[in-house]
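Sequence design from tokenized structure. All designs in this work follow the same two-part layout: the structure record, then the generated sequence. An example of the structure record is given first.
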């Protein structure tokens, strides 16, 4: 197994959301005000449970399951589960930071799997085995934490960058698993991504990792790149009937030219099935910057019913 060096998660930046994105309501503003300390990480409302599982190739991998701090064997109501695949080179702990205290504020669980590609650790890039492992996450979590009760028909997938790519592939290949999905700044054409990697810092090294993971270059192994490219699964996504939010930025300097990546996928889905429950959120932000508790992640989750901005009823734990 080859371990590629981990990349640091991007830091959030001030952004402008274009017309068509959900406008912050007075309820949302009040919710942010009431929970500002938790959103900024000044309170610790969650607890992470480290579990292990066997990946598709038999290797032992880890996952972090983040739960509200009050949740445990003696207080275990049925709650939704979010599968959150990480971005390129990120660890489960780094991915969990994107969620902050939101699992407690929304009363749901998040599983952050380490993942395993065909050859590389942390650089799975939507390998078929990795997508199968993601689909097994509810069963893996139940087996590792038998007291955690997952609410019926309440499994979601949310990811950014490579994690967004894998979220889209999970929608395409396992639609009956999911009640909803959200992708942030996802690559959708891996052959195009391979060509664009040299524009990035350490881009030639990333290309080397891609050749190892995919088994070659797009010119000679195009089918292997297509098999991991959500754009080639547009028909499956369009008819999946899974509610889906596709967030992408015109200012992205990591997944460059997002109009030809996530934007093109959205329009392909709508051409195939105009009634598909898919929405597009477009704006100007740095790569995955909106996937943060004090950016637009709460709005995206609220659209899926995972967060509610009304004041909690008396006696409801947070």
């Amino acid at each position: 197994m080859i371990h590629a060096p981990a990349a640091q998660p991007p830091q959030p930046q001030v952004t402008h959301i274009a017309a068509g994105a959900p406008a912050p309501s007075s309820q949302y503003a009040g919710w942010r005000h009431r929970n500002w300390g938790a959103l900024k990480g000044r309170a610790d409302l969650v607890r992470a449970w480290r579990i292990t599982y066997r990946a598709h190739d038999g290797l032992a991998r880890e996952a972090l399951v983040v739960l509200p701090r009050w949740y445990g064997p003696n207080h275990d109501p049925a709650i939704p589960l979010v599968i959150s695949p990480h971005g390129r080179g990120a660890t489960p702990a780094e991915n969990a930071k994107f969620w902050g205290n939101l699992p407690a504020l929304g009363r749901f669980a998040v599983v952050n799997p380490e993942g395993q590609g065909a050859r590389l650790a942390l650089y799975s890039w939507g390998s078929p085995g990795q997508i199968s492992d993601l689909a097994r996450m509810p069963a893996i979590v139940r087996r590792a934490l038998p007291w955690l009760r997952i609410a019926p028909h309440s499994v979601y997938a949310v990811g950014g960058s490579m994690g967004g790519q894998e979220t889209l592939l999970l929608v395409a290949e396992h639609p009956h698993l999911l009640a909803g999905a959200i992708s942030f700044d996802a690559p959708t054409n891996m052959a195009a991504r391979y060509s664009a990697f040299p524009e990035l810092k350490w881009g030639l090294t990333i290309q080397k990792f891609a050749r190892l993971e995919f088994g070659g270059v797009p010119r000679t192994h195009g089918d292997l790149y297509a098999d991991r490219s959500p754009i080639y699964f547009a028909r499956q996504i369009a008819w999946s009937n899974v509610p889906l939010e596709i967030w992408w930025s015109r200012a992205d300097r990591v997944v460059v030219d997002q109009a030809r990546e996530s934007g093109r996928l959205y329009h392909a889905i709508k051409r195939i099935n105009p009634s598909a429950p898919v929405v597009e959120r477009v704006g100007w932000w740095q790569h995955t910057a909106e996937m943060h508790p004090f950016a637009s992640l709460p709005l995206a989750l609220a659209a899926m019913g995972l967060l509610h901005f009304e004041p909690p009823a008396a006696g409801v734990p947070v």
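Residues 93 and 301 are 20 Å apart (CA to CA). We note this feature because it recurs in several other targets discussed in the main text.
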